[in-house]
Every structure is written in C-alpha cells, then in structure tokens.
Amino acid sequence: MSSDPAPRYRLAGLPSEPRCLVMGVVNVTPDSFSDGGQWLGTEAAVAHGFDLAAQGADIVDVGGESTRPGAQRISAEEEVRRVLPVITELARAGVPVSVDTMRASVAELALEAGARLVNDVSGGLADPHMPRLVAKAAVPYVVMHWRGHSHDMNARAIYGDVVAEVRDELRRRVDAVVAEGVDPALVILDPGLGFSKLNDHNWQVLAALPEIAALGPAAGRVWPFPVLVGASRKRFLGRLLAGPDGTPRPFSGSDDATVAITALAAAAGAWCVRVHRVPANADAVRVAAAWQAAEPAGPGSGGDGPD
Ligand code: PMM
Prior knowledge:
eight-stranded parallel sheet; binds pterin-6-yl-methyl-monophosphate; disordered C terminus; alpha/beta; TIM Barrel; 10 helices
C-alpha cells in the first residue's frame, strides 16, 4: 500500500492537508438559500462558527448577503454590520475565516479583521475594485463562475455546452484578475453550482470537474488550480431526491446527498468543499483520502505484496 502525506495544495495563510478541505458555512442573513435567519444575530453566528470549527471545518466562510435565486442586494453598510463582528471574533480565536462577499469595501474590512481568504461568488465581476484589493492583500481568492446577480440569474442559464462554457468563462476571469495583479498561485476556482445553472447543468459540471479545473491529465498550461465545490443543500439535490409526487426534498433533507458529493468531489481532486453541516463531510473527505492513499501508485507499482 502506498501513502502520500504531502498536502494537496499550499495556499498562503490557509490550512494544507493531504486531503480535501472542509469549509463550514455561516450565513449571517435572514434569507439565505437553506439556513437563512438561523445565524442572523452576532452571538448565534459566532457560536455556530466555533461549533463548525470544533466539528472539523478547516475554514469557516462568513457571508452577510444572500445569493439564493431571486435575492435582492443589501447595502454595503448592512453587509459589514452583519459579518464584521463575527469575523473579528472567530479570527481572533485563531479560526481560519473566509469572507463571502462580492464587494471590495467589505472584503477590505474583513481582511483587516483577520479573514484569510476572499470568496467572491462573482469572480471579480460584481465589483471592479475587487481584483486590485485582493492583489494588494495577497490573499487566496475564490473565483466562482457567475453570470449575473441573483435577481435574474436563472434567466442566464442558457448553454450550448455547459462544461466548455463554464471552463472558458472561468479561464477568462482568471486572465482578467491576473491582469489586475492577482497572483495565479492564490487563485481558487469554483464552478458555481446553482448560479445561472439549471438542474442538469449542475450534474454535467460536477461530472466534468477535472475537465473544468483541469485537475486531471487534461491540464493545460494555466492549470491546475485548486477547486472549491459548493453543492451543499442546493436545489438540484432536492430535485434529485424528490418524493414520488415530484415534490423536491427540503434543503435539510439533502445533507446526506451533500456528503456523497463531497466524497466524489474529494476523490476527483477538489481542494475544498463548502458545506452547511460539517461532521459527516469531515468524515467523507478522510474516507476519500484513505481510499486514494491505498490506490496503487500507478502502472507497474505492484503494491506492497500480499499483506
Ligand atoms: N454558494 C452559495 C454562497 N456562496 N460560495 C462559493 N464559493 N461557492 C458556492 O457554491 C456558494 C458560495 C449559496 O449557498 P448558501 O446561500 O446556501 O450558502
């Protein structure tokens, strides 16, 4: 049996492990996709962040603006009011925190408060100041596939070849943010499950993760980048698990399916999964790592013999 304890990816300021990482979600919002309202108060949000870290989250992602389909934007002031005290407390205690924001002004305050990663679901498209800010701060930056704000994003879910288009649009975003000074070694890609994507689009993108991110042998010259996968509690899981009458399974009923995606994404080579419920996902990434470590190293390796 071969084992490889080397970290999969090293990104400045973030944990690196020889397995896929787990990012736990704290939505400080009244209306998020699946957990809106649960952690709106600072105290509840901070306590939840500590719980997620204790349960095995490698990173805690704090967001103040809902991006569920149809959501309207909130002001930057309100976003700061929601996330800043939470980030400050978690970061002060040593928890690796990422800020889920599309606004450079919010990201800047969050980084000052101790956040170590900027998770920008718009990949730098929503706020033209974001790439410069990230470049100056020299922190890891999640560039997600995004076609527009939530209020009408489903109208933009029109693809001929979803895999090729997501890959090419991500590639263009990487070129754009790198041109603004972002260090390519700090870029993390995210296919943006559920963002301007209908049911089947999400499955096609997941099945092609290695192609989209070039995690596998198709790696071209710009790749590979670490990839973040955010499938947790998304609608396409509820639809997959619909009852006999076609009613989609409620969000919280798709946590087990999220764990299945975590295992498969980790086995495909994902850098990190973004999830609402941490414990079973923390187990799943360890299972995937042990499975992979036990795989023969390659043709002709022959393993360690009969023991
Ligand atoms: N999804 C949501 C919010 N932020 N960030 C990244 N990088 N990837 C995602 O898929 C993603 C995200 C929406 O889900 P939620 O409102 O249930 O947290």
